[in-house]
Design a protein that fits this description.
252 residues; mainly alpha
Length: 252
């Protein structure tokens, strides 16, 4: 039984993917969190909310939660490895560029669809009270708060992000790239700033950090993680979000 954990793929797939994802999150979240802490005057016009939270409220509690969730995810990887190893995920020759080019959008679509319905489920009364309320501790989040959540929610989101790679039997390198992008999205979505020069503004269908920021501000609506169309089509946009988006476009 323990021989399966000596397989190099155990290290390259779940362990390295978690490590790459965690490292990428900190790389993206720490500079953004520094902005939230120092609140430089030149960047104030780009803040989404006027309300600010202190480092004592956000930073250190978020790091502690992140450490707990990292340990829980590691345990989950060990427990699920007998099943994960049966997937088509592999570490063969490096993937062709065109393989990465179609797989990443596929992962994003699958993840966003699943996230929308998982997120709505987490807002049902019992799950919100016992699980999701942890993440909603911050109404004006910092980037580092992207990892501040109940371990159950953190592990569900981690598993959700793996569905796409598991379905196509992706190369581990493609999964690492996906983990980096996914963690950028998590950090930016909680950063509290919306910069006009941010390159992700040009990604098709992406609403930007204000989309999820309004979810924290209003506690309801904007359940999708990336494509705002889902909430628009299903009538679950956060109150006043569309007004904010319209006004920001006029100001721009």
């Amino acid at each position: 039984m323990f021989e399966i954990y000596q397989d190099s793929l155990f290290f390259l797939f779940p362990i390295c993917s978690l490590t790459v994802g965690m490292g990428a999150f900190l790389l993206f979240a720490l500079p953004y969190s520094w902005l939230s802490w120092k609140n430089p005057t030149r960047f104030i016009p780009y803040r989404i909310q006027k309300r600010r939270m202190s480092a004592e409220e956000v930073f250190w509690p978020s790091l502690m939660r992140l450490a707990i969730n990292a340990v829980c995810s590691l345990i989950l990887a060990v427990v699920l490895w007998p099943l994960l190893r049966l997937s088509g995920v592999h570490a063969g020759g490096l993937p062709h560029w065109y393989e990465v080019l179609w797989q990443l959008p596929f992962f994003l679509i699958v993840d966003d669809l699943g996230f929308y319905f998982l997120h709505r489920m987490l807002h049902t009364r019992w799950l919100y009270k016992h699980v999701h309320a942890v993440h909603h501790r911050f109404t004006a989040p910092w980037a580092i708060a992207g990892g501040y959540m109940h371990p159950v929610e953190y592990m569900l989101i981690t598993l959700l992000a793996l569905i796409g790679p598991l379905l196509v039997g992706a190369h581990v390198v493609t999964i690492w790239i996906w983990a980096i992008f996914r963690q950028w999205e998590a950090a930016e979505g909680h950063c509290g700033y919306e910069f006009p020069w941010n390159p992700t503004r040009w990604l098709p269908g992406y609403e930007g950090p204000a989309f999820h920021d309004f979810h924290h501000k209003r506690f309801v609506g904007n359940y999708a993680n990336y494509f705002g169309l889902l909430d628009r089509w299903l009538g679950t946009e956060s109150p006043s979000y569309r007004d904010y988006r319209r006004d920001s476009q006029v100001a721009g």
